[in-house]
Amino acid sequence: SLLQDLWDVVDRNYYVVGSTSDLDHVAWKKELERALAQAHLEDRTSTFRAAQTMVRSLSKNDRYTRFLTPVEFDRLRRYDASGIGINLCDDTEYARRAARGDAPQLKENPMQSNEPLVIAGPAEQRLDDGQAMGIAGPRVLGLVPGSAAERAGLQQGDQILAIDNVLLDPEWTPWETTERIRTSGGTQRIATVTVKRGQGGTVDKVKIQLPKEAESGASAAASTTLSYVMDPGPWGGKLGVLTLSEMGASTPREVRDIVHRWMEQGVDGLLLDLRGNRGGLVPSAVEVARLFLHKDQRVVIAAGGIAEPLAAQEGAQGTDVVPYNLPLAVQVDGHTASAAEILVGALRDNCRAIVVGSHNTFGKGIIQSVYALPQGAGLVLTVGAYETPASRPIHLVGMPPDFKELPSLNEAQEVLGRCVRGDNSFVHN
After folding, report:
1. How many CB atoms neighbour CB 62 within 10 A?
2. Which 3 state secondary structure label does DSSP give 422?
3. pTM for this prediction
């Protein structure tokens, strides 16, 4: 059963990295037959070994797809990027997941409310049935076992309507909604989340006892992933240097707060130092990019037939939070990877920032999904790849720099001016 399920998941979903052709389904079927012939099906160790051999046969260019033993899978399931144990997605992504059996189907339930729902706004208003039906908030895709969100009673498929009695902003992404929940709750750290259950079903209020900042893995990590300083720079004024060593859960909010503070102090330019940044959370990188882009500019493209993990981000656009005339540069090295490369590509391809460094970035740009298999095992599977807004591949290629060292402001503006005019090539000075 495990080997058959593994074969089926890969056969339907695998994205071949670095190739224009799809999975060789005939060869993959032979791998299953070979594994079934070699494995002693009553022996778990033998079965797991056969599964690992099957996965290794997929592609020489993909060292990130991997089979997980029950111990490894349990450890991965308990990783909590949000800090409260919740993974949200939009309606479209949830529907795709449910259709493929990766999430529960939504049940049809009559619309009802367990208690009056009073929602704050310009004037206090009651959330009636019609309003609740019209709110297309994100849905709960997954919960970390034993987390604050699971203990509070949130369920897969729940649709978020309001946080602490404040209606969701329709512009919020699933990641922004998660961040609002995590930072709400007042002094008691109890967040009240209004949810709609099922397809047009019951409206409930769920109270989440949020962990203290020191207890939240996402929050604790954020304090060590970001540093900043404002010094005299080569651009004729004060240069704000923001060093990001990882894309953590709180990174977008911290970047926004620091840049706003600098703008009040009259900063003349910004440098995002991503050297050594091996990635982190893709939604976090997308949210950072949006701070510096116009509302009509795309952040990233998902390539491949199935790319659900990026579905909520692929349509994400800028926010106009940071003035577009504020000069911006991004510094990289050969260890700048994954989510950090998405940020680099978004800023460079939209002609917003020059790229400074002596080497191309690392070149890891794949989309992966995690699947549960029989016997408690799991599979981390490549299902797509990231591309920059100009359709540049990231994986195995990386992002090249424009300059080896930070250039003069005139040189930087000349490169970005050519980019705006349609010459999006890198200059390698």
Report:
1. 22
2. coil
3. 0.72
